[in-house]
Design goal:
Blueprint: H1 12-18, H2 37-45, H3 54-62, H4 71-84, E1 95-104, H5 105-112, E2 118-122, H6 145-149, H7 153-181, E3 189-193, E4 196-200, H8 208-230, E5 239-247, H9 248-260, H10 264-277, H11 293-309, E6 319-321, H12 327-336, H13 344-352, H14 356-367, E7 387-394, H15 395-401, E8 408-411, H16 424-428, H17 432-451, E9 467-474, H18 476-485, H19 493-509, H20 532-544
Antiparallel strand pairs: 1-5, 2-5, 3-4, 6-7, 7-9, 8-9
């Protein structure tokens, strides 16, 4: 096939075909479309080396003499650039949207923690009930392979079944309780009447559409309040679904992480994800691998952390804004944080007293043996932010705050050791004793799994309201975003309270910083029906746009 130096030389029948693949034949800005993924990625990769514009490159290098795209030629170029030349940025030029279903709440954190290049969306325990059994009559939670192989599945199922039974009973009772706390007469929707936004209660509704919007808004408010509280007893083994949009480099790193992790569930999903993506972007994910360094480093770091912090009684302050320390000590402390159960302040205090040689030994263990530049060191090297928080809160709270991507987060293992937060409403609806029984059963199961050597899998034996310690490091711009977003009234009441305290401590340490987060919402975070105002607004918008907002109740 001839090579053309100008679009004016290209035959008309080829130009006609090209118009299917670009949104404009003569504009300087255009969309690429309708090409095979490998061809799209290969075409974009040519921008760095081809002397011609992309449309001419498409014709010269990716179309046959009849103007049809050649996926093989795209793959060949990707192989050369991505695999042979090692130009990793090319891995970000194409991606895919993937559904990952029937995974545990624990595994979703492994997936969502791969923060750069991917955008996850998860089935929400605040909006979706988990009170239905599957087609086999079983509650929807993971039966981990590790537990099955150890012969402990009978006890595991007994505990998880009990947790789901109490959860289901709790949702019913809490729904009735919140209806009493927030009767329909107190709810209103915000609608447009004669070009003016007005708030109307149930008695002021004028037609069936308004009545439906009112019912949807009110029922959703009550359901969210009930689920917010009721999920306290959901186990980390509970199954969920999530969707992920990501580029090739993101998925390469994610598959490597999953296939190399200590959990069997992660390994299985890693291979399934690779198999699925091989049907769409095979060359983009070709670099993924099983990396034995991950588990080896984790084992060695846990060993040295146990040596350093044996006998240290963990602090349990919900929010601690760290004072700045020597950079070396900050990095060493950050390296150790995921491998112990004590606070970052306690870790730093011990690290400051270590000789320089011991700190270097910790670095060597944390780094492991790097054979290539791609064997990168863990997130502990990201220490040194101006704002670093040591946080202790429910797993439910962590699940929301962990998803912020423009910061560094690390967590310690899920465990009952940090305690369980009992919502007051569970006592009001006469379920506190049953929740306490479930928590005791889960704690015993966690200990049993650990005694059998199933340290990683023991994390499945925890509940949403078991407390977890995690750290967030960020600059002021990210704190502006996080503090204003996570204090909105539509957010969960418990993480709102945590973020409000983060703001207070930051103001105290850096009074001048208050200028940059003026939209923080300080209203009562304990109000379990705080999203009523938000649902009033949403119901009105849906009504104005003729949208059926009742789909979530089908």
């Amino acid at each position: 096939m001839p090579k053309y130096s100008s679009l004016n030389e290209v035959p008309e029948h080829i130009i006609t075909k090209v118009s299917k693949y670009v949104s404009s034949l003569d504009g300087d800005v255009f969309v690429i479309r309708n090409l095979p993924r490998e061809a799209t990625g290969g075409l974009m990769a040519r921008y760095s080396r081809a002397p011609t514009g992309l449309r001419l490159t498409l014709i010269n290098e990716f179309l046959d003499e009849n103007g049809f795209p050649s996926e093989v030629r795209g793959t060949e170029i990707l192989e050369r650039v991505l695999v042979d030349f090692g130009d990793e940025s090319v891995g970000e030029l194409e991606g895919a949207k993937v559904g990952i279903e029937n995974v545990s709440q624990l595994l979703t954190k492994h997936i969502e923690d791969r923060r750069i290049g991917g955008s996850p969306i998860e089935q929400s325990t605040r909006y979706v009930k988990s009170d239905q059994k599957d087609e086999d009559g079983k509650w929807r939670y993971l039966r981990p392979k590790e537990v099955v192989d150890a012969g402990l599945i009978g006890g595991f199922e007994k505990v998880n079944d009990k947790a789901f039974e109490v959860y289901s009973e709790g949702v019913k009772r809490l729904t009735e309780y919140f209806k009493g706390e927030f009767p329909r007469i107190s709810f209103h929707i915000e609608i447009d009447r004669n070009g003016e936004k007005v708030k109307v209660n149930e008695n002021e509704l004028q037609n069936d559409e308004e009545r439906k919007a009112f019912n949807v808004g009110y029922n959703f408010t009550i359901r969210c309040a009930a689920l917010d509280v009721g999920r306290c007893v959901l186990p980390s083994s509970a199954l969920t679904h999530l969707g992920v949009h990501g580029n090739g480099r993101f998925f390469t790193n994610l598959i490597t992480h999953l296939k190399s992790a200590a959990l069997s569930e992660a390994n299985k999903k890693g291979f399934e994800l690779e198999e699925s993506l091989n049907t769409e972007i095979p060359t983009f994910i070709k670099r993924n691998k099983i990396d034995p360094r991950y588990q080896e480093i984790d084992r060695n770091m846990r060993k040295i952390a146990l040596e350093l912090f044996r006998g240290v009684n963990p602090e349990a302050n919900p929010v601690t804004l760290m004072m700045r320390n020597d950079y070396l000590d900050e990095v060493v402390s950050s390296n150790l944080f995921p491998y112990t159960n004590v606070s970052l302040s306690q870790i730093t205090e011990v690290v400051m007293g270590l000789p320089f040689e011991k700190k270097m030994e910790i670095f060597d263990i944390y780094k492991g043996i790097r054979k290539t530049r791609r064997d990168r060191t863990g997130r502990g090297l990201e220490a040194g932010y101006p704002l670093t928080f040591d946080l202790v809160g429910c797993f439910a709270e962590y699940r929301d705050l962990e998803r912020h991507r423009m910061l560094t987060q690390q967590r310690q293992m899920l465990t009952p050791e940090c305690g369980f937060i009992m919502p007051a409403e569970m006592g009001i609806v006469k379920l506190e004793k049953k929740v306490e029984e479930v928590e005791a059963m889960v704690s015993d199961l966690n200990n049993t799994l650990i005694n059998y050597g199933l340290v990683e899998a023991a994390q499945y034996a925890t509940l949403f309201n078991h407390r977890i310690r995690f750290m967030l490091g960020m600059n002021l711009r990210e704190f502006q975003h996080l503090s204003e977003l996570r204090t909105e009234t539509a957010g969960h009441f418990s993480y709102r309270a945590m973020v409000q305290e983060m703001v207070r401590q930051t103001k105290t340490m850096y009074p001048w910083s208050d200028k940059f987060y003026e939209f923080v919402n300080y209203s009562d975070p304990g109000n379990k029906i705080s999203r009523a105002k938000e649902q009033s607004r949403i119901a009105g918008k849906g009504l104005a746009k003729r949208m059926d907002t009742g789909l979530d109740f089908e």
